[in-house]
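Lab notebook, design round three. We kept the backbone fixed and only want residue identities now. Task for the bench partner: fill in a sequence for the structure below.
Input structure tokens:
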């Protein structure tokens, strides 16, 4: 009698490989999705919209804009230079002298916010001190202001490029692990396994995104400082992007699992069905006397 040991070891080895490759795939997908979300947040359009809103709150531009415009007109009329610097704005923004004398309030507001957002996105939060070369930024990193400073500083072109590289690398790693994971799985169970790996990456990320958004909302409601409340609301709005993405990924993973289960049941039913008896061949029966 032959020993059943080597034969019974094959399913155990296959199961161990499934767990190994599935776990590694889920971890890799978590990093990949995180990099993709970071890419979206730090993309030029999204990041500069957030930075523009933050600049409007930080500078209280709507309150000081009439003064800025009035003094800008005076500076333009008194200057003989081709360009003038917008006064009372904590960032050096230059305008052609003729445009400075005729620009409307809405155009000036839009210009200042877009210029500030673009400068922060390309050069970082240090641009706030460029209007005053002797200014120094001293912010407690553990304070709410420090959190705002780090959050806005994250929205930069340099971080976007770094996240792009990370997403490409993690994408290739995830593809390789997905291939190994599918090879270690049999039949229609591959679809269930792939959906389960996607859920393993999306569900924890979704829970984290919900917790972060809840933290922003709670902190905003309990905040007495109006400026910090507005900035926390901005963070809450930005967190919606990741919450939406992880919700979609969770639904896709759940859909793959359900579809895979249906196909597995159909496959099992097809295997269990008895084979139809073969019809007798014509002309092969016994000859009649």
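Proposed sequence:
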């Amino acid at each position: 009698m032959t020993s059943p040991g080597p034969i019974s070891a094959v399913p155990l080895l296959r199961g161990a490989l499934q767990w190994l490759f599935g776990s590694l795939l889920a971890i890799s997908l978590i990093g990949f999705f995180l990099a993709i979300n970071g890419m979206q947040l730090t993309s030029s359009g999204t990041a500069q919209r957030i930075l523009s809103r933050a600049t409007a709150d930080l500078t209280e531009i709507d309150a000081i804009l009439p003064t800025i415009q009035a003094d800008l007109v005076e500076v333009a009329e008194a200057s003989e230079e081709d360009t003038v610097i917008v006064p009372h704005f904590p960032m050096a923004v230059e305008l052609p002298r003729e445009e400075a004398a005729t620009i409307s309030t809405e155009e000036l507001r839009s210009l200042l916010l877009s210029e500030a957002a673009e400068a922060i996105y390309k050069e970082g939060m240090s641009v706030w001190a460029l209007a005053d070369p002797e200014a120094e930024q001293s912010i407690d990193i553990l304070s709410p202001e420090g959190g705002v400073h780090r959050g806005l500083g994250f929205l930069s072109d340099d971080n976007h490029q770094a996240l792009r590289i990370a997403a490409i690398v993690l994408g290739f790693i995830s593809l390789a692990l997905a291939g190994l994971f599918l090879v270690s799985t049999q039949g229609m169970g591959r679809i269930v396994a792939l959906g389960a790996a996607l859920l393993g990456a999306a569900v924890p990320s979704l829970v984290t995104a919900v917790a972060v958004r809840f933290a922003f909302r709670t902190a905003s409601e309990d905040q007495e400082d109006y400026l910090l409340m507005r900035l926390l609301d901005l963070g809450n709005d930005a967190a919606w992007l990741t919450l939406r993405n992880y919700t979609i990924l969770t639904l896709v993973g759940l859909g793959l699992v359900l579809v895979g289960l249906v196909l597995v049941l159909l496959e099992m039913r097809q295997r269990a069905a008895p084979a139809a008896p073969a019809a007798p061949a014509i002309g092969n029966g016994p000859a009649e006397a």
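Keep this in mind before ordering anything: DSSP finds nine helices and two strands in the chain.
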